[in-house]
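REQUEST ID: PR-0412
SUBMITTED BY: lab tech R.K.
PRIORITY: routine
TASK: structure prediction, single protein chain
INPUT:
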Amino acid sequence: MEYQFHPGMDYAKELDKQDPLREIRHRFYVKENEIYMDGNSLGLCSKDAEKAVLKALDVWKEHGIGIWNVEDSKYFLYPSYIGKRMASLIHAEPDEVTITNSVTINIHQGISTFYKPTKDRYKILVDNLNFPTDRYAVDSQVRLHGYEPADAVKVVESQDGRMLSEDAIIDAMTKDVALIVLPSLLYRSAQLLDMERITAEAHKRDIIIGWDLCHSIGAVYHDFQKIDPDFAVWCNYKYISGGPGTTAGLYINKKHFDKNPGLAGWHGNVKATQFQLKHQYEHSNDADGWLTGTPPILSMAAIDGVLDIYEEVGMDKIREKSLKLTAYLMYLIDERLVKLGYRIGNPREDMKRGGHVSLEHDEAYRICQALKKHGVIPDFREPNVVRLAPVALYVSYEDIHRFADILEELTINKEYEQFSNTRSLVV
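STATUS: complete
OUTPUT:
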């Protein structure tokens, strides 16, 4: 889409007046005099999430062990209950989504289920720009099968350190590849891959493919009816705002429901016989068949609460505003900050970028520290990226304009030079 923006704070305020989502901001705990641009690492707490967590606490206080039977066993069935609600965010069938474990464990679950190496087809195809936990899991799994990562893990290399070539990914789908694990969105550069094209090419070659949606879920609408992946994983604490470290999401394509999970546990058993406690596993014929242990209710309740907002607003409106916010941010960078040594390191086209802007500068780390001093919460990623995520549900156009004002002034004054380049424990 072509956007026609104009300079000035008055224009930013006018954009906010025209924003159909402007009232949703008040359902989040947005601090006064703070500009929160780190929702792609940890989303802000919503009042809806808080209400749901407090309700779960009240049910526990009132019913004790009876929590599993109240409200038609809602909490006992929480993984599928919330999974059904989340399915609309990716246009999946309700029984193809469940909420369980962490992202890393779900990657292990997907690989251990679908990775069936043979003498001639034993490699897992990955890229060199994905978040490292995916690679750690892949390397671990090939070792469990008796291979060395140097031989069994095939890596598609980026040519510029920012983006991946989809043609290169497809060219790497050789006959020795058994499984592919890729990110839907690159966490540094915000590049959004053409999942439908890549998945179709994998399936033409009878290759299983799984996607990591961590940096796109909640900001980008995915149509899994069209994409048709074999499995997918994601976290729920970034754009979804389900709380720090909250339970992750897992998608299993219904065509694979007959397969046994690589990592089996008692909550993956058919619910009707689960408490018969047999030692013979009865696999639930849906995504819940990939559950393992007892669901962490207090963690999951926040996801349940914030999904009220997602259902009310809809992913189409969220994506529309997200694209406009990031386009406006890039407009201000081009107009005011490029001349000060900044570069935009993400794709500009709507169809090729996610919900954050990758702002590059040689002093990115110290600039992030200086921004925090002024009440701006950005995100630093090695080696030179200031990640900026104007989340559509609670970031305003005025926030973005104020951010540009602050960054321009502290750069001109070289205020960042007051800060150390020594990395803190969490950057």
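NOTES: DSSP finds 14 helices and 13 strands in the chain.
REVIEWED BY: pending
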